[in-house]
Amino acid sequence: MSWEKSIEELRKRERLAENMGGEEPVERQRSRGKLTVRERVAFLADPGSFHEIGKIAGKATYGEDHEIATFMPSNSMMGRATLNGRPAFILGDDFTVRGGAADAAIRGKLIQSIKQAKEYRMPLVQLIDGTGGGGSIKMFEQDPRTYIPETPGWEYIVQGMSEIPFVSLALGPCAGMGAGRVASSHFSVMVKELSQVFVAGPPVTRALGEDVTKEELGGWEIQARNGTVDNVVDTEAEAFEAARKFVSYLPSSVHELPPITEATDDPKRREDSLISVVPTDRKTPYKPRKIVEAAVDTGSFFEIGSQWGRGIVCGFARIDGHPVGVLAGDPFFLDGAWTADVCDKVTRHMDLCSTFHLPVVHFVDCPGFACGVKHETAGVTRKGVRAMAAVYQATVPVCAVVIRKAYGLAGSAMMNPSKAKWRYCWPSGDWGSLPMAGGIEAAYRKEILEAEDKEAYLQSLYDRFDAIASPFRTAEAFYAEEIIDPRDTRPLLVDFVHHARRVLETGRTCFGPRP
After folding, report:
1. What is the pTM of this model?
2. Which residues contact 90 (CB under 8 A, 6 or more apart)?
3. What is the pLDDT of residues 143-185, one digit of tens each?
4. CA distances from 372 to 8, 335, 337, 344, 375 (A)
5. Do residue 228 and residue 358 come from a single domain?
6. Domain identity same for 232 and 282
7. Owning domain of residue 134
8. Measured distance CA(194)–CA(318) in Å, rounded
9. Rounded Cα gap, residues 485 and 275, in angstroms
10. Same domain, yes or no, for 95 and 147?
C-alpha cells in the first residue's frame, strides 16, 4: 500500500493549474506582447528559487464518477523566492483567468501573501494585471444581491506597509482593486504602452460622458507624471530588474538595517568636475544628477520618480557600499522651487527612508516654495508644511550639502533641526530668509528714485549686499558650520555614512513598525 495514486492526482491537478486560463486566453495574452504570470515569476525570481503555494487552488467540477471534470485555477500565483539571493514573497495576477476579476479569485491568497511576507520579514513583490481581485458584474450571477462594500485584506496591506517593502509592477490594465494595489506600495512601475492604471476603465467613464481609450485614461504619461506610479520602463524585463534593484537597497523589514555591500569605489576619490559644475553667475542652472553621481559609488544611483515633482531629484545610492536615500534640488525646474508635487515627493521619500532606516544625503538647492496663483491653487502651502514635517520628523541621520540656494521655509527643510547638524556648504552657497534680488529695489525704492545716477546707485547696493551674502560671513557666525572644497564631498560623505551606521546600529533595539 502507498499513496502513489494520490500523488498522481496531485500531479494531474498541478498540470491543470499550469494551463492557466487555457490555450486561447494564453495566446491572447502573448499576442498583446505580455508574458504569462508563470513566465513573469520565472524572470523575476532567482533561477530555481520560487516555491509556489496554493498551486492547485481554484474552482473544479466533478462527474458522476467523482473524478474532476473541469478546473479553473485561481487568477493569482503566490510563493516564496529569492531576489539577488535575499528572501522575497511574490504575488502575481493571472490575466488569462477571467482578467483577474474576483469571481475567479481565491481571496485567501492575497491575505496569506501579505501575512507570510510580513511575519517572516521579507519584501512583497506584486505583479498586477487586471482588477487585482476586484469586482465583476458577472459575480451577481453567483450571488444575486448587492452588498455594502468592504475590501477584504486591505487592513493587512496597511499593516504590511509599515513593516516590509511593498513593490508593485503594473503589467497590464489595472483597475479598481488592481489600481489600489499599484498605488499602495513603496515603489511602483509601469511598462509603456502595456499597462494602464485607473479607478474604473473606459466603459464606466463613457457613462459619465468621457469617451477615452485606456491609454488616454490611465497611461504612463498621466500616472507617472502625477506621482501615482514611481518609475516607467519600456519592457517587462526592465520592470523586473527595477524591482530587484529597488529592494536591494532596503532591509527585508523594519526589524533590520539596510544591507551593506562590498565597496567597489575608492572612498577617498575626489571628483575634479565638482569644482566647476555650478556656474559662478548664480543664475545659470546645472545638472544635479552629475553631482549625485560624482559623490556616490560609481553606477549606484537609482532614481525614483523622475517624471513628477521634477524640481527635486529623489532616489537611492550607495556610498562606500552603504545604502542611502538621496534628495537633490534641480534648478532646471522653476529654479528648484518646491511646488505642490515636489512637496508630495519630498514627503513620500523622507517617510520611505525613515521607515526603512536609510540615512539621507540632501544636496540642497531650494529658493523656497513656488509662488503664484497656480501654486496656491494646487495647495502648495498645505503640502509644503507637510513636507517640512516629514523632514523635521526624520528618524534617520541626514547630511545636508548646501550646493546653492536655501531660502525661506522650504529652504530650511534640509534636515531634522532637533538633531545635531551634519552639514557641509559649498562656496556657491546662496541663502537667507528671502532672496536679495528684487528685495533691494523694494527696500530702497525712495533712495533709488532720488539718486542722481540711479543705475550707479543700484549697482552699489548690489555690490554691498553681494558682500553681505558671502558664505564666508555666514561661517564667521557659525551659521554655516563648514564650507568645503566641492571636490571633498565624496570623502566627507563616506565619513558620514560610517558614523550614521553606528547610530542606526545603536538604535536597533527600538526597531519595529512606526507608530
Report:
1. 0.91
2. 41, 44, 45, 50, 77, 78, 79, 80, 81, 124, 125, 126, 127
3. 677 767 778 789 999 999 999 999 999 999 999 999 999 999 9
4. 71, 14, 12, 18, 6
5. no
6. no
7. 4-248
8. 32
9. 7
10. yes
